[in-house]
Amino acid sequence: MGIFWKSKKSNAQVVVVTKYLDAEKTKEIWQEIGAHKEVWGLGENRVDALIQKNMPREKVHFIGNIQSRKIPEIVRHSSVVHSLQKVEHAEKFASTLHELEMGFFIQINISREPQKSGILPEDLGNFLEKIKPFELDIMGISAMGAGEFDADQKRREFRELVSLRDIYLPGKLISAGTSRDYEIALEEGIDVVRVGRGFFEE
Fold it and tell me: Which of 48, 90, 45, 50 is nearest to 65 (CA)?
């Protein structure tokens, strides 16, 4: 599978997005790929899918929009969140986790599109200060870039993410890149790519 070879070559990890698959198929896929060192986990974007599939918590990453009332279920069924963007959500996660371990990526609206979720790049420093009292395990930053793009635009987005990470969270990770642009992401030094349809179509 090309994605694994390319990720290994770039010293990156893959989150395999299984939001399009039912519970049975998701379990089959995990049995096939779970042993690959490059596979960090499975990505889901809906809380009801987390509950229905009921995969081992440590293997599951939540990549969807966060609703405050569903945070307890996100905590119960996943171990990494790629979409933290509100202070009130950080506070609720902190009060819900208790002894459970969970990693968080702060979602950046790197394309600055009003319809996109995430905080603006220039607000990252302030956001980090606001959530510091909650002592969450911040693993890095994440982003979903422009829906329509050319390669040069995508490279600029990835390079800005690398710059933001190096300024505010040196040594941490960047989660970005999808089935359509993961090769560019790997070339630009992105640490974690999230690949769904492109993976299953290989």
Answer: 45
In DSSP terms, 193 is beta-bridged to 14
pTM of the model: 0.94
Those residues with Cβ within 8 angstroms of residue 48's Cβ, 6 or more apart along the chain or in another chain: none
CB 181 within 8 A of CB 149: yes
How far is the first Cα of the chain from the last one, in angstroms, to the nearest whole number? Answer: 7
d(Cα 102, Cα 55) in Å, to the nearest integer?
Answer: 16
Alpha helices in the chain (DSSP H): 2-9, 23-33, 47-53, 71-77, 87-97, 124-131, 151-168, 182-187, 197-200
**Per-domain residue ranges of the chain:** 2-200
Tokens linked to 132 = 């510091």
Query: What distance in Å separates the CA atoms of residue 90 and residue 136, rounded to the nearest whole number?
Result: 8
Round to whole Å and give the CA distance between 186 and 11.
9
pLDDT, average across residues 134-161: 90
Q: Which of 42-56, 64-78, 185-199 has the lowest mean pLDDT?
A: 185-199
Q: What is the CATH number of domain 2-200?
A: 3.20.20.10
**Structure-block tokens of residue 2:** 């090309």
Q: Which residues are registered as beta bridge partners of 104?
A: 81, 138
Mean pLDDT of the chain: 93
